[in-house]
Amino acid sequence: MQSLPGFRDFLPNDCAARNYIFNQWRTTARRYGFVEWDGPVLEPTELYRKKSGDEIVGQLFNFVDKGEREVSLRPELTPTLARVIAAHERGFKKPLKWFSIGQFFRYEKQQRGRLREHFQLNCDIVGESDFAADVELIALCIDTLRAFGLTEKDFVVRISDREFWTDFLRQQKLPDERWEEILQAIDKSEREPRDKTVERLGKLADPVLAILTDGGRSGKIDQLVDGLGARGLAGFVDVDVRIVRGLAYYTGTVFEVFDRAGKFRAIAGGGRYDNLIAQLSDGAVSMPALGFAMGDVVLGELLQERPAAREKMETAIRTGNTVDIYIVVAKEECRADALAHVQALRERGYRVDYPLGPEKVGRQFQAAEAAGASIALLYGDEWPQVKVKKLATREEILVPGDKILSQVDSLLK
Ligand code: HAM
Description:
By secondary structure, the protein is α+β, with helices and mostly antiparallel strands.
């Protein structure tokens, strides 16, 4: 039996890499004063039909449950967040700064950087329309990537403003109901052959392609870049009107993060969605909001590719699954005393491993090395003394058994 296409097994080293990514995500979000939350992985399909847009609805893992409900595994978090905010906003002071780390599911064509499940860090600010929130959010996105040892040579945040395009479509007198279709064509224009884009854009092909070629300016984005410049982060951003985002609910600032060389799919994406909460609550709660999500798949590929970032990740993987102490039971008569120490050391918070059954001493030392232990404690002929071996230097000393617990800290140094 094999796993389903687009689904991953996480063997111990993969899990250590995943934990490393989650730790950096969590640490940076907390540094920015964001608090963690989560929602359910299964939601009513209607939640996504209402607002995510056709592309994501076409990729839903959806089914009818035993209670005849139409349900979907979550493809993204933003609609859930909007639903939760609409239901609970009175309980919280605004603006809210919330982050979440979870797994998402999209029935996409499996390809490099795109699977059918992936993990995302979502960071959202709710209840703040001021530009300062846009700067804060993008700064967080940049600093999250910097925490992995990535620099402005490795990635770029491409920023745009959907209003730039909606103003243009208004000037072109395009009926509102066709806006989404044109925005999607612009979003896909970099990935699709030109004739396909021209066909999708129809009568607007010439003016849109002219803007895409020459670039366009928006005073709002310039302000945003200035705000990031004041934090010393201007080198990480490019203004790029080709970014409009594939999801339907964005209303203002939009951005996507790519590797500088343009080799991979987007690492992260987000923007303002000032109307979504009102739309999902039928106008009961209206609140500006903005956020981004960063996926683990493309990020992992980029970390593997950039030497400094890879080194940092590999160190974390190496240390992620190690133990501090390995207990070598050299004589079975000593097992009970050894086990008493295993228990006492674990209770004090050390990571400790030992052989579950009789095992040759040489093999036990191999196991200690493989587990990455700093010291091995040997219980054998020397008991009631314990032979302590520092595995890095091979240095050995004898310590009275009843002094092990009080001396273990200095032995580990
Ligand atoms: P998104 O651009 O659809 O945005 O996804 C965000 C990131 O998740 C992408 O840049 C990519 O790294 C990763 N991702 C998406 N789909 C896949 C996939 N099939 N396989 C691997 N990685 C994937 C959103 O989801 C918005 N809800 C973000 C947001 C939060 N906007 C406001 N708040």
